[in-house]
Amino acid sequence: MQIKKLFIFTLLIAGLAACGSKEMKNAPAFTFKNIEGKKQSLADFKGKYVLLHFWTTACRSCRKDFPKIEEYYSEIKGKEFELVAINVGEDLKASEKFQKKFQLSFPMLGDVQGVTEDLYQLEAFPTNIFIAPDGKIIRTIVGPVIDKNQVEVVINQHKKKG
């Protein structure tokens, strides 16, 4: 029984170490067009906490979560935080349609060629990647982030470490 506990503990530590190795690396740079047709890059948001929300129209959760995301974004957007939705592998018209349908106010960019799948090692949608003001990735959450408390916890945890 003792060996089994030690084995489970070792697996847990190894898993945490593996998760930690992905964190705190520089976020890969990108430049995409927004729904207005203007180019925006990750560097445009430097100095803020940024939540990159990667999505596709085929993702059911992505479609149903946009109103909840807009709700918390409208409460916490500002000089310290920005949310950027990146539609992966689809035409900008898809993002524009969602922006109008859900009256979204956060920046929506189109990764038409789908390059962020490799850049950010995306395995599922939605994937949310938190980036610190210095440009380092601090947390990745596969699945929805639909609550402002989730965002605030990630930001506050990072501030406490710094």
Descriptive keywords:
162 residues, alpha/beta, Glutaredoxin
| CATH fold name | Glutaredoxin
| Regions with little confidence, pLDDT below 50 for 5+ residues | 4-22
CATH architecture: 3-Layer(aba) Sandwich
Tell me what portion of residues adopts beta-strand conformation.
15-25%
The N- and C-terminal alpha carbons lie at a distance of 40 Å
Number of strands: 7
Average pLDDT, rounded to a whole number, is 87
- Shape, please? globular
- Number of alpha- plus pi-helical segments: 5
The CATH fourth-level homologous superfamily: Glutaredoxin
Radius of gyration: 17 Å
**Strand ordering within the main sheet:** 2-1-5-4-3-6-7
Task: Explain how this protein is built.
- It is a single chain.
- With 162 residues, the protein is an alpha/beta fold.
- It has a single domain, classed as 3-Layer(aba) Sandwich (Glutaredoxin).
- It is 41% helix and 23% strand.
- It contains five helices and seven strands, in the order αβββαβαβαββα.
- It has a seven-stranded mixed beta sheet with strand order 2-1-5-4-3-6-7, covered by helices on one side.
- Helix 2 (60-76) links the parallel strand 3 and strand 4.
- It is globular.
- Residues 4-22 have low confidence and may be disordered.
